[in-house]
Amino acid sequence: MKTKTKVVLTLGLLSLLALGGLTQSKYVRHSTIEMDITHETDPKPTGVANPNNSNDASGWIAYTVPKNGYYAVQLRGGDGFGGSNLGGRGGVVEAVYYFTQGTELEYSAGGKAGWIYNGTYNYTGGRSDYSAGGNGTPSATAGADYQGGGGGGASALRLKTSGNLLVVAAGGGGSALQKTYRPLFTDYPPRKGGDGGSLNGSGTQIGVAGQNDRSNQGKNAYQGGAALLGSGGGGGGLGDTARGGGDGGGYSDTGSGDGGTSLVQGGGFAVTALTTAHRTLFAAKLSIAGTNFNFTSTAGSGNSLGIAGQARITFLYSEDQAEHTNIPNIYK
């Protein structure tokens, strides 16, 4: 949406047509000319999505607000690791901010947790420039297939100068175990990691708890506790609230990691929810052709490959009016 400003110039109209077919006078008075002086181009969306075969963080990426207006901020945390769709999904946070021109921001996308790539197992947590996911712990009795999965890294947006946080999208927790284990003819199936908190608006949201016996201590970036069959790591996020999986003393007590906590706050700027109506109205601006950005209310596949964190800022519209001064009538 672009606000157009028309300037009306009153020049005065005195179109003197001489009788008998004489030519029009060069003196023109009381005429009006409308000019559209709003020719600036809307800022293009900017964002980053980490490669799907990497758990690296993107680094902090600087963004200077180019003009006053309303901007959609969309972040997604990295998925936790777990086979058979058992890794926790990264949280999704979406909000609309009114930013003023020249405001300096920086954003970062967290990595997904460890993966199986070209036959190599990697159970480390997803990296993050704000809060990384915890590592999964190996099984004490079985091979790498039974190790717990890592938690996903958090994505974040902050003010560049002060470092004050505006948005955190938490990572998902890692699953406990990677395969069904059958000692003594008893099934001990994998357990799903908790999803990171998802927010549409302001406030905080705690992530979903992982399944079975998490550690009652630990925090974001906390690795799974020692377990006979491997425990999942917690997802990265706000306030060190996620927990890694724990071990209550037996096979059945092996736990997965909790999802991390997400945040949206004003930081001195007006902030509202990115509603369904907003998404529909600005669909062309919010979508970026040719990329794998995935922002939905419950984004993330949670599968063995997972989806890495994502971050994007999109200009929506401005209510500012272009200013002008009166142009004197030169035809006098």
UniProtKB/TrEMBL annotation:
Q: Name one GO cellular component term.
A: plasma membrane
Q: Where is the signal peptide?
A: 1-20
> Where would I find the ALK/LTK-like glycine-rich domain in this sequence?
67-315
Which EC number(s) are documented for this chain?
2.7.10.1
InterPro entries in the record: ALK/LTK-like_GRD
What is a single molecular function from GO for this protein? transmembrane receptor protein tyrosine kinase activity
What keywords tag this UniProt record? ATP-binding, Cell membrane, Disulfide bond, Glycoprotein, Kinase, Membrane, Nucleotide-binding, Receptor, Signal, Transferase, Transmembrane, Transmembrane helix, Tyrosine-protein kinase
Q: In which compartments does the protein localize?
A: Cell membrane
**Positions of region (Disordered):** 187-223, 238-258
The protein's name in its UniProt record? receptor protein-tyrosine kinase
Organism of origin: Pseudolactococcus raffinolactis
Instruction: Give the classification, highest ranks.
Output: Bacteria, Bacillati, Bacillota, Bacilli, Lactobacillales
